[in-house]
Amino acid sequence: MSEMPLTRREWLLSERPATRRQARLGRAYIGWLRFSANRLALIGLFIILAFLLIAALAGVLATHSPYIGDLAGARLLPPGPDHWLGTDDLGRDIYSRILYGSRWTLYVVVLVAIIAAPIGLAVGTVAGYAGGWIDAVLMRITDIFLAFPKLVLALAFVAALGPGIENAIIAIAITSWPPYARIARAETLTVRNSDYIKAVQLMGASPLRIVVRHIMPLCLSSLIVRVTLDMAGIILTAAGLGFLGLGAQPPLPEWGAMIASGRRFVLDQWWVAGVPGFAILIVSLGFNLLGDGLRDALDPRSGDQ
Amino acid sequence: MSAALAVQGLDVVFDRFRALKGVNLAVQPGESFGLVGESGSGKSTLLRAIAGLAPAAAGTISINGKQLGHRRDKAFYRQIQMVFQDPYGSLHPRQTVDRLLQEPLAIHGIGDGERRIAQALDEVGLGSGFRFRYPHQLSGGQRQRVAIARALILEPSILLLDEPTSALDASVQAEVLNLLEEVRNARGLTFLMVSHDLAVITHMCGRLMVMQDGEAVEQLAAADLVSRKVAQDYTRRLLTASDGFVRSL
Amino acid sequence: MSDKASTLLEVEDLRVTFPTRTGAVEAVRGVSFSLGRERLGVVGESGSGKSQTGRAIMGLTPPQAEVSAKRLAFDGIDLLSAPPATRRALRGGRIAMILQDPKYSLDPVMTIGRQIVETLRTHEKVSKAEARERALDMLAAVQIRDPGRVFDLHPHEVSGGMGQRAMIAMMLIADPELLIADEPTSALDVTVQLDVLAILDELVSERGMGLIFISHDLRLVSSFCDRVVVMYAGKVVEQLKASELHKAQHPYTRGLLDCMPRIGSDRHPLPVLQRKAEWAA
């Protein structure tokens, strides 16, 4: 370039991007600027990044085995130099179990999001765009799922499928897509009659193409926000199922199951149930703060002019 | 010789409300035809019915002598394209100009996208500097130019224009009207243009139809309108109104 | 003393500044004019600051924006230093404003009649029966044929033209001395537009009001107003008598007049406005 070289910031914020890549990166950068202006959101992001890191490095960070305890000499020890967060009734190191447990929590959250969000998005956008009887049928099905309390429905599914963490994931996913479908449908209804959708129809695009390429991207940001905010709820539902003995089975170090097994000692040895409870609290909070920040950064209604 | 666009006895009904009542229209190839009327006159509905965006309850629509069925096929969209009124609502807010122009090519499986997009942008006077911008980085006039480029990229022979300049400032309107005339001359396009502004219609069109309450009031040549040779009172009223305010005293 | 000499509104060096992420943006940059009991048109394209000028006089500038002026006085009252209570009393009482779309400025859940009565009763101590009486008279004055029926209708039950008349009735009920009309007829059909303007015209001349008519439509303004202020990029580029618009000096005004298609003039292509950087300087 013969002109003055741009700083990276100017290049990103340019009103006249020269390439596809620059346009995309510029847009992402503006989103990041908006997101990072919110300090709480940054804290949320930090918590989630730390959570991911812990899950990845659990094997390195752990001081003991999460499964094998010292039944003879280390039952229900309070936090101390040997066992930083104490031990449980089987003499297992709680610190190590929490680290390994983060993997299970992450596993649950990611799988539920991957299953539930696309189902909700597909059902909602198709119902909203097609209208008529397709809309009626899809939305009544959604209503049926919404009519039951989430945990009760998940319980019923797990009871039918049999206990276990995979089944718990399936059950939670099945119960959490309806709100996403509602959101996606509402968004679709607001854009389906807009001129830019009409313009694509006038190009001869098939309904499938319109839904997938033009409507879904518009629903995506509100859906991502909602899913992030729901992460906390998913963790809690998984923990609830674990607590009731229908989720992860012993000896898996899943946080909900850990609380369940610690509840017998909650008055005398608080750390057995308290530490996993605190872990759930922190991660849920992290997802909530992140979701709030994403809402400000992604919401198409704010700031896009 | 068959008309580029012929409409016969067209009825459009929305929830028992008859928005169009038996409208007839014939536009010759290469002609620029105007539709004038006030809100609720059915002029935009007629345009949308031709484009297949509003359901026809009765009557026929033919393009180049071929009668259209209930469903429009892909070939239809390569013959007719449309430019909408509101430049802020007719471009997808999350797509760059590049993506917007790529879409029609992708739908119709037309290759050579790079060249066509660059050429389309040049034709509407935007140049490649605008190619990777998002709609919110463009002014109203620039957006309307993008919309025109999008309509032209499939190389249609008929362009439907739904109040293409009524949301624009007067100075920008002049630029867009000039651009439309330029592309019409260069490509020998047939225009069907809706406007509430008689001055715009007489400037752009050779013939026009005045509409009121879903019916055609009269059809006349723009030259007759200019020399005030009109048959109907309603047309005369519109004509007087477009002269501006006259203090009665 | 002639009508024009009694100054109703004085505006000197009015500035409206909006803070944005990239720094302050001045929407109005030093506008000055004065108004007697006359019809003044304020013309400009979008972004010229014409609407913000009207809003600043009315005191309806968004809270994050900053308004300053050497002088902004209505009938001798300095508007910028006046306490909020005084401004509220002026607003809707002695100064009224009509907006472009009645759909957004009338309360959708209240009948038209009640809105007019409420407006009157906030500014004058009158009995309910008398207020109703005056509201019906006012509806008749804006040429609504069946005032008794329209009185009990909700805004969504009337047409755009009728809604705008109701809006005018509501704004004029308290007998304001200054009326600011921001694109009052742009959302209406041409034939309805002229009816509404005729009503506005009659009321203004009958009651001796001052009128600020804000519009993008140079032709309409020149046929309706006594005097025209042309704005560009937040500044007044030219002030002139409406009847002498064809003698406009400034290239922007001339360009704006020129670029509109006219019935009976065959100009292909239309002359295009060539914007010059120095106009905005």
UniProtKB/TrEMBL annotation, chain A:
Family the entry assigns: Belongs to the binding-protein-dependent transport system permease family. OppBC subfamily.
Membrane topology: Multi-pass membrane protein
Localisation per UniProt entry: Cell membrane
Signal peptide stretch: none
Parts of the chain that traverse the membrane: 40-62, 104-130, 151-176, 224-249, 269-291
Entry keyword set: Cell membrane, Membrane, Peptide transport, Protein transport, Transmembrane, Transmembrane helix, Transport
Any single biological process term in GO: peptide transport
Transport among keywords: yes
Identification of the protein by name: D-ala-D-ala transporter subunit
GO CC, one annotated term: plasma membrane
InterPro entries: ABC_transport_permease, BP-dependent_transpt_permease, MetI-like, MetI-like_sf, OppC_N
Pfam families with a match to the protein in the record: BPD_transp_1 (PF00528), OppC_N (PF12911)
Main location: membrane
Domain of life of the source: Bacteria
Organism of this sequence: Manganibacter manganicus
Domain ABC transmembrane type-1 per the UniProt entry, residue ranges: 102-291
TrEMBL record, chain B:
Residues covered by the ABC transporter domain: 5-238
Record InterPro entries: AAA+_ATPase, ABC_transp_ATP-bind, ABC_transporter-like_ATP-bd, ABC_transporter-like_CS, P-loop_NTPase
Listed Pfam families: ABC_tran
Record's bilayer topology term: Peripheral membrane protein
Subcellular location: Cell inner membrane; Membrane
Major location category of this protein: membrane
EC code: 7.4.2.10
Gene Ontology biological process terms, A to Z: transmembrane transport
Enzyme class (EC, first level): translocase
GO cellular component: plasma membrane
Family annotation (PROSITE patterns): ABC_TRANSPORTER_1, ABC_TRANSPORTER_2
Function field: Part of the ABC transporter complex GsiABCD involved in glutathione import. Responsible for energy coupling to the transport system.
Name of the featured protein: Glutathione import ATP-binding protein GsiA
Organism, as annotated: Manganibacter manganicus
Automatic annotation (TrEMBL), chain C:
Recorded GO MF terms: ATP binding; ATP hydrolysis activity
Database matches in Gene3D superfamilies: P-loop containing nucleotide triphosphate hydrolases
PROSITE patterns named among the record's database cross-references: ABC_TRANSPORTER_2
Localization (cell): Cell inner membrane
CDD domains listed in its UniProt record: ABC_NikE_OppD_transporters
Membrane topology of the entry: Peripheral membrane protein
Residue span(s) of domain ABC transporter: 9-258
Name of this protein: Peptide ABC transporter ATP-binding protein
